């Protein structure tokens, strides 16, 4: 097979290899996984080539802007679509013809750069950062007891009096819905609060069957059991994806400091981190209504449709069309950035890797970056690709990463 004698530069210029790195699907994954299983001695060469393909695809300064934009549009928009590939000899490629020529022109310089990075560590940088353990996920029960959640365990969780509250199934809490709809006259709502620290994610299924995915650095306060004939209200600080069970008699409302989102049954994403002043709701399917949290005038909720984002900013709610993949990528195991300011990207990386950034290179804050990364990719690799766009240096001291002008 032709790949047996390939070197790093051969892999980088091979179109089917590019497809695997930038637009993988079941067929390409199977082909390359099987090939690597038969050629384990090529693993290091392949890893270096994969990294260089990503670096080349992110190099806006060296590639013409139209080529750069075209490449990333394919990466971000088409990577999530299922596709087939008839033959690994096909000429389909993630790089346009003009981009291929430009890549060839800068290839020698970039290869020298990659050799320096991989062999000599010529840049001031940190070691590869795997996802740290960070703080523990905690569940505050209705009696005030705080339970530490281990994602690798399953079993019932009880109050201090021994009363069963919820079942844990590894990374999901499942509340019993047997009491839903029963006579609850005289009953009061009892709340639990789930706290997910930086570097972790978690799920829960509420007593009405609604499925919620909590992102890193988030808190959700919710009833242990919803009562009949009463609205279903939950309280969010952070980000969560909601798949709400339909119930026309009882609206489901996500309450945040700035903007509430009310639905009867649909799928949507809400982000409202208190320390970021960036509250928005993105609708995936169905319909929702959004309104100010302090809706003292009783204004009618603003309706949004799938593909739209409602943003609370400067005391007002604006509605705009949105790239859904960008906002729900975290739930699907990806970090997706589309023309995002570097300052906001750092906040996202802080939450996902449980680190703190000190950016002393302020000119970077307003620069926009685009890229898509799978969870599990080291933080150092993500930063390396970012600085191929705009050079900068960074050092690490404990959990603090300091960025400076190169």
Q: Which structural class do the helices and strands define?
A: alpha+beta
**How many strands?**
23
- Gyration radius over CA: 24 Å
CATH class of the largest domain: Mainly Beta
Low-confidence stretches: 59-134
CATH topology of the largest domain: Jelly Rolls
- What is the percent of helical residues? 25-40%
**Gross CATH architecture of the largest domain:** Sandwich
**Biggest sheet architecture:** 18 strands, mixed
Q: Quickly count the helices.
A: 9
- State the domain count: 3
SS strand fraction: 25-35%
Shape: globular
Mean pLDDT: 79
| Euclidean distance between termini CA atoms | 43 Å
Structure overview:
With 406 residues, the protein is of the alpha+beta class. 27% of the residues lie in helices and 31% in strands. It has 9 helices and 23 strands. The chain has helices at 8-13, 15-22, 26-38, 43-57, 65-78, 97-120, 324-328, 342-353, 379-389, and strands at 137-140, 146-149, 154-158, 164-169, 172-174, 191-196, 202-205, 211-214, 218-223, 232-243, 252-255, 259-263, 267-273, 278-285, 288-292, 302-304, 308-313, 316-321, 334-341, 356-359, 368-374, 393-397, 400-404. It has an 18-stranded mixed beta sheet that branches. The protein has a 3-stranded mixed beta sheet with strand order 20-23-22, with helices on one face. The protein is globular. Residues 59-134 have low confidence and may be disordered.
């Amino acid at each position: 097979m032709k790949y047996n004698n390939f070197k790093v530069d051969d892999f980088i210029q091979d179109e089917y290899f590019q497809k695997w790195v930038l637009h993988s699907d079941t067929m390409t994954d199977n082909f390359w996984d099987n090939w690597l299983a038969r050629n384990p001695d090529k693993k290091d060469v392949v890893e270096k080539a994969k990294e260089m393909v990503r670096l080349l695809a992110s190099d806006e300064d060296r590639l013409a802007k139209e080529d750069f934009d075209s490449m990333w549009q394919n990466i971000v928009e088409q990577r999530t679509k299922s596709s087939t590939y008839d033959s690994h000899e096909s000429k389909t490629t993630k790089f346009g013809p003009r981009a291929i020529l430009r890549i060839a022109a800068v290839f020698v310089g970039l290869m020298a750069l990659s050799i320096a990075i991989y062999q000599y560590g010529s840049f001031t940088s940190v070691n590869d950062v795997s996802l740290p353990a960070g703080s523990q996920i905690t569940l505050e029960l209705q009696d005030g007891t705080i339970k530490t959640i281990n994602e690798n365990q399953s079993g019932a969780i009880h109050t201090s009096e021994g009363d069963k509250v919820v079942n844990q199934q590894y990374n999901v809490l499942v509340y019993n819905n047997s009491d839903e709809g029963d006579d609850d006259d005289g009953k009061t709502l009892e709340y639990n609060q789930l706290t997910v620290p930086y570097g972790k994610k978690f799920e829960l299924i509420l007593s009405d069957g609604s499925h919620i995915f909590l992102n890193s650095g988030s808190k959700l306060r919710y009833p242990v059991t919803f009562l009949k004939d009463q609205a279903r209200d939950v309280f969010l600080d952070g980000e969560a994806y909601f798949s709400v069970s339909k119930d026309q008699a009882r609206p489901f409302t996500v309450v945040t400091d700035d903007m509430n989102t009310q639905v009867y049954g649909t799928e949507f994403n809400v982000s409202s981190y208190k320390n970021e002043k960036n509250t928005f709701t993105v609708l995936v399917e169905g319909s929702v209504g959004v309104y100010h949290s302090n809706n003292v005038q009783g204004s009618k909720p603003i309706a949004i449709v799938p593909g739209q984002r409602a943003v609370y900013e400067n005391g007002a709610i604006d509605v705009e069309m949105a790239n859904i993949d960008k906002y729900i990528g975290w739930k699907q195991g990806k970090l997706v950035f589309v023309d995002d300011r570097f300052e906001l990207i750092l906040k996202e990386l802080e939450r996902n890797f449980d680190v703190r950034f000190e950016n002393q290179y302020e000119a970077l804050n307003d620069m926009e970056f685009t890229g898509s990364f799978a969870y599990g990719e080291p933080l150092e690799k993500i930063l390396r690709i970012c600085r191929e766009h705009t050079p900068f240096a960074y050092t690490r001291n404990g959990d603090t990463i300091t960025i400076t002008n190169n």
